[in-house]
Amino acid sequence: MRFVAAIGIALSLCVGVHGAANAQRAVPESRQELTLSFAPVVKKVAGSVVNVYGSARQQARNPFADDDLFRRFFGDDGGMPRERVQRSLGSGVLVDASGLVVTNHHVIENMTEVKVSLADKREYEAEIVLRDPRTDLAILKLKGGDHFPAVEIGDSDALEVGDLVLAIGNPFGVGQTVTQGIVSALARTQVGVTDYQFFIQTDAAINPGNSGGALVDMQGRLVGINTAIYSRSGGSMGIGFAIPAAMLKVVVASAKSGGKTVRRPWFGASMQAVSPDVAEAMGLDRPTGALVTNVVEKGAAATAGLKRGDLIVAVDGQAIDTPDAFGFRFATKPIGGTVNLTIRRAGKELTLPVKAALAPETRDRDSIKLSGRTPFAGAVVANLSPAVAEELSMDADATGVVVSEVDPRSNAARFGFQKGDIILGVNNQPVESSRDLDRWARERPNFWRVTINRGGQVFTSVFGG
Questions:
Q1: Active-site residue 55, yes or no?
Q2: What's the pTM value of the predicted model, to 2 decimals?
Q3: Between 393 and 92, whose confidence is greater?
Q4: Which of 12, 88, 105, 136 is catalytic?
Q5: Active site annotation includes 211
Q6: Which residue ranges form the domains of the chain, and what is each CATH number?
Q7: Alpha helices, DSSP H only, in 13-126?
């Protein structure tokens, strides 16, 4: 569970489950109306909400195991058990009758074996068919069986603050539990859990174990996947966050098409929030929109005619208040389509059609896992391109050689290398490709002087040889 991050579930229901989707919202006016029950909605949806159990068997290895003297006294295993098991517990939702289950990525992160328990106590082994850490979502496929009770995915954009919601999941591992609340806020962007900050906030009680559970509306349709809570105690404090169904649909569609990763359009521009001073200078009533600070040559934004200093205020008619809101809206558009941006330029409002296309791989990524007795051992490095930068959530114009993965038990991790580090030079030699770095890593100097760009900050570290 994450504490903003802790995790939860929220289900959105309203009185009148069988009413029309566009039924008028109304405050109860009589005692009879106040005694109406959520039970019909729960019965409709509860069978689709599952428990997810993950485990990973890892080889335990003593850091001194390579030392001959140590092994002479303690044996080849270094006096440590050869295997340890890591476990996790969370919730999930059946979104397709074939057995597709959506859950949070952090529930099954690092897991190699996953089991799913249905509400009727049936248990299935599950295959992890897609992991998407950028949205904190993952898709599982149940092994065996069919015609599972899948929930209908609804329209998260139709939610309004004040709508009733229900949270269904497995908090603290006690078994399936339903809690009720309202939508407290929409488009929350300062949560810090995923790359796409655009959450539904609810006061429905959400606790550890609710991660990956369902947020459903009054018609029993899935409108969100609960992902985080704000908590000082580890339990619910009435502030929970769910990933909107609009993003969920993109991830599910990728899994159904057989993809192992999510296909998203690449914009090819950097943006920043509008400060009050900038808003005043631009003649705005309030600081809103996404201000373009850089446009990548030959990217989708540049091809559409976007320029530095343009202010994006809407995407396909939906208002944009922040760069995070733009990132969410653009990422949910289908590949190959056209997205109409409303922008302000020199006091005038313009509409620019932008092609929703994949980020190009302008050079071979040539990924290499470095090895040997060097500070780099255990790091995977690749040549940067727009495609690689997009996958690693880096600036669109980033260039060079990047650390794309670090084994947590490796030299690279112990020496402090991080995913996203750009290696600029080694021992005063420029690193222009992954092959360059592989070549330098094979040498055995007395020390290593490594220049790194980390999040725009350039520094040099010296490591012993």
A1: no
A2: 0.77
A3: 92
A4: 136
A5: yes
A6: 1-260 (2.40.10.120), 269-355 (2.30.42.10), 368-464 (2.30.42.10)
A7: 31-34, 39-45, 68-74, 105-108
